[in-house]
What we know:
The protein is mainly α. The chain contains six helices and two strands; from the N terminus they run αββααααα.
Amino acid sequence: MPKTFKQEAKEFLADVPAEFVFRAQDGCIMKNMKELADELDAMTEVTYAFHVNHEKNDFYNWVKDIIKDDRLAKDLKEAPNRAQAAKRAASRVTLLKKRMTG
């Protein structure tokens, strides 16, 4: 049976297992999508550039492979900069929270 929007939202917003937390170059540890959105908003451009550059996009990989939210992963991959990545992550968190209560 396919998952409901509510179930899917709950899974996407949940904490990941301890061994799969995202450890940013600046020492920040993120364990869920909300923390990712908050950290993207607060992190320095230097930290963002360490994780997102022409060779890699660590946030895209983490969201796609660990959180398994393909929509947010795609949004992060297409984000032209840190501010847009933060905005897209925050919007996704807001939408998913609405689905959980709706």
